[in-house]
C-alpha cells in the first residue's frame, strides 16, 4: 500500500541516494554527474509514488 511521503523520509532517501553518489563521484572524478544521477533517481521515485494514486483512481494500471 502506498503511504504518504513525509519530509523526514524524503530527506533520508535523498541522503541515502546522494551520499554514495558523492563518494563515487569524488573517487571517479565526475562529481556533478553522479550527484545529478542520484538526485534524479530519488525525485523520479517520489513522483511515481505521487502519481500512482491518481492513475489508480482513474482506472489505469
Automatic annotation (TrEMBL):
Domain of life: Bacteria
GO MF annotations, alphabetized: protein histidine kinase activity
Alphabetical keyword list: Membrane, Transferase, Transmembrane, Transmembrane helix
Record-listed E.C. numbers: 2.7.13.3
Annotated transmembrane regions: 12-36
Top EC class of this enzyme: transferase
UniProt protein name: Phosphate regulon sensor protein phoR
Organism whose genome encodes this protein: Raoultella planticola
Gene, per the UniProt record: phoR_1
